[in-house]
Structure formats: structure tokens, C-alpha cells
Design a protein that fits this description.
The protein is α+β, with helices and mostly antiparallel strands. The chain contains 13 helices and 12 strands. The chain has helices spanning 12-20, 48-51, 61-67, 78-95, 118-133, 145-152, 168-172, 185-193, 199-204, 207-214, 216-226, 256-276, 309-320; strands spanning 4-9, 29-31, 45-46, 72-74, 99-101, 106-110, 137-142, 160-162, 242-253, 279-290, 295-306, 329-341. Strands 5-6-1-7-8 form a 5-stranded mixed β-sheet. A 4-stranded antiparallel β-sheet has the order 9-12-10-11, covered by helices on one side. The chain has a 3-stranded mixed β-sheet with strand order 3-2-4.
Amino acid sequence: MRRILHIDMDAFFAAVEERRHPDLKGQPLVIGGRGDPESRGVVSTASYAARRYGVRSGMPLKTAYRLCPKAVFLPVDYRHYARVSQEIKVILASVTPLMEDMGIDEAFLDLSAMDRPPETIAREIKKRILEATGLSCSIGIAPNKLLAKIASDLQKPDGLTVLDEDDVAEKIWPLAVRKLWGVGPKTEGVLKGMGIRTIGDLAAASVARLTARFGPSHGRTLHQSARGIDESPIITHWEPKSIGRETTFQQDLRRWQDIARALAELTRQVAASLKAADYRAQTVTVKVRFSDFNTQTRAKTLDEPSDSPDRLRRAAFECLGRFALKKSVRLLGMRVSKLEKRGAGR
């Protein structure tokens, strides 16, 4: 039987800030944007004390401030969080090389071939992370990635939950359908419109009904996921499909010179990331969101892949020239895709 472990750090950004600033421990703490609740930006992480007021990740900072005006707001310090994350990933990689890195604060481990009980391994991981970083994590163990991820969320913070296929009906089906991995706000809204509110409701729905609404692939995946079925492997290495950056301005930009200056900086950052990752790109895409939230993209495909900052910048500005900049700009983004490793094909 497969034994997959999912580890999820508890309120990671907020917990790291509490470690840096012990006087903040236990206070409502909101991490997001520049740390100014009056500015544009969204909540990246909220401490559990802030969550009791209804503050959630992805929420506008202004909304979080209305819900919890006494909260401490701090800017995102991604570089510092990444350093702490690397400490944690080193610990996980020492347990097994079969690790799938899922981002800065979570990962999957395949423990199937290990001869010790997975619960014992999980407790050792929690102990080692706590001793090394002072941070707690929640762990789920199950026969597949889908159930392991759900399990890690069932007893937060500092939880350890083990699920098997026999637990699906009792412990998984009563949960809201949004708890299912891969069900976002849009899919949740469609399902609610179909009268499907829990994972059990989704499991009881016919495949024909789901495929008719979501298409053959997505419909069948939803039906299988609701029944706890997931055969996806642990992916220890993956190739990126694109590299990009975007920024939401504190005040909408109206002058072309300001927009051009912002695009040049985004292009510089993307080119640096592209070169650091040892890739070249063939397609450049620029995204503009106007003050009325209308969002448009323009793309240019180069004759051959490149990592030249000058060439990428020229392509980005060619894309920018194809926008009718008659309205002020709220958000600007630049992305490169059709990536290939430098030296490939030569």
C-alpha cells in the first residue's frame, strides 16, 4: 500500500514573523503586500488569532482591516521566508529523496518503501522542524496525495492525521466541496448551482451529469476525487512552463512613460530569473489590467528562444505598443513561455 505524507507549515509567513518578533505572538497578525492596510494588496497569510475574525488568505487588505482593525499588518518578506523554507526542505529531503516540493510551505513525501511506521516518521519530522526553526507543522498521511493533503488540514495547527480509503465516507464526504483539492471558487460556484455542496454530494452525482457540465476529463476527475481516488505520482522534478512577474500599482498609472518604466523593470526581473534558472524563452506575453478591471494580453513569439534581456525587452515593448492605452493601468504583468534549457537543441 502506498503511504504518502503531506506536510503543511502552520500559518507559515505569520509564524516566521512571530519567531522574529516574539512580542507579536498570540496577536492578530496579517501578512500581505507592503503591510499597509490602506493600500492595494491582498492577505498572503493570517495568524490563527486573525483568522478568528474572519481574515483569510487572498482577501483584500482593506477588508482584513475592517474585520480586524486591531491586527498588526506586516509586509511580505519573501526572501526571508524562502530561507526558512529551505531549512525545512533540507530536513524533508534527508528523510527520503522521494519528495515533491509544492511551494514555500508544503511538500509531499512517499514513505511507501520505508520500513518504519509512517506515524513515527511524521512525529520525528515535526520534532526536527520545531527544534531547527521553532515552527509547527501539520501532517496528513494517506494512500494517495489527494487524501494526504485533505488530512493535513483536518487538525490544524500542529496536527497529525492518518486517513485510509475506509475513512472517506465518514470523514471526507461531510466536508464542503471547496475542501477538495483542485476545487476553486469558480468550480465551487458551479457545483453549488447544481445543488452540490459537500464532497459526499459530489461523490453521489452521476459521472454523466458531471461530464456534461465540466467536460469528460474534468468531470471524471471531480467524481474520482470525491471518492478519494487519486493515482498521481510523486514528482521529484518538474520543468517550468513559464516565468513571469506582475505588479498592482498603489495608484493607477496614466502616463505612458510610467507604464514603460514599470514594464522595463518587470522585464529585467523576468530576464534575471530566466537566466538564473538556465532557460531561454520564445514567447513573451504582456498583461494589462485597466482601472475598470478589464484585463487584456498581447504576445509575441520570437524567431528562436532567447535569454537576452535586450531582446526580451524589445519584444515586451512591441506587445505594449499593441494596447490602446486610453484608460489608466491598475496592473501590469510580463511573462515568458515556450521555455527550453539553455544549450538544448544545439
